[in-house]
Predict the structure.
Amino acid sequence: MATLLWLQGGACSGNTMSFLNAEEPSACDLVTDFGVEVIWHPSLGMELGEDVQRILRECASGERQVDIFVYEGTVMLGPEGSGRFDMFADRPMKDWVAEIAPKAGAVVALGDCACWGGIPATTPNPTTSTGLQYLKGANGGFLGKDFTSALGLPVVNIPGCPAHPDWVTQIVVALAAGRLGDIALDDLQRPKTFFSTFTQTGCTRVQFFEYKQSTLDFGQGTRTGCLFYEFGCRGPMTHSPCNRILWNRQSSKTRSGQPCTGCTEPGWPHGDLMPGTVFKTQKIAGTVPKEVPFGTDHITYMAHAAAAKVAAPQWSKEDMFVV
């Protein structure tokens, strides 16, 4: 039986709420079918006060084995390195993390805040927040770039705001079963099984992207046109399976006409939420996107876009839906 400890730092609890909606497998399946013992979880644990302190002391000392340590939220270092912006069980949360993480079999950073620092680490970062092993795109974070868990793994990053619940439970099952070979990581320490393809993969608007047909109205994003050209959709540049493993088994942001904001990438929130950067494609000379799809360059993109527009069939410019 594998043991799991889950702690929250500077977080909104969004990843916990997502996790509790998991279906394949569900949160209950982890316990009943896969034998995961949940030592403690901030929303599910029955222990309070001194009992929680006792559990954490046992985990930090190695008296109690932690096979999987899931951390949600940022590690807050402020003020002035004390970590006292985030106190938990009578200590700065950062101190619990520093003691528990090296003894855990595997450490999982869940959500953007734990992976890269997320919104709290956005300039001016008043709480001096950081991710477990990254700060935005820079390797290091709180635990340092050379950190490995007791099993020799770096922090396993499962980003997203929030992360899809099934990404979480499937990785927990693999770790609990000791299938470390199944968890190949990319260069940002994300599981390749989920983060090798792009959000655009499976997007129902992809035919409009191919023929460079834009929508000029938010409401039409579900019917005609691509949201990349005007509304800042980052689907072609974002690694995620959001259009392969659908949310609630039925939809995604782009399928509902909402631009992908790129929340599984370390630069999120892109543009640091400055005015004019949200839901708006940033352009050069008012025509060419500043950022082009992953793997291409601006010259190649411009040539492709020009040819695609000329070749665009009439149906790509019309509303194909009749209901």
Notes: The chain has two domains: 2-195, 206-317.
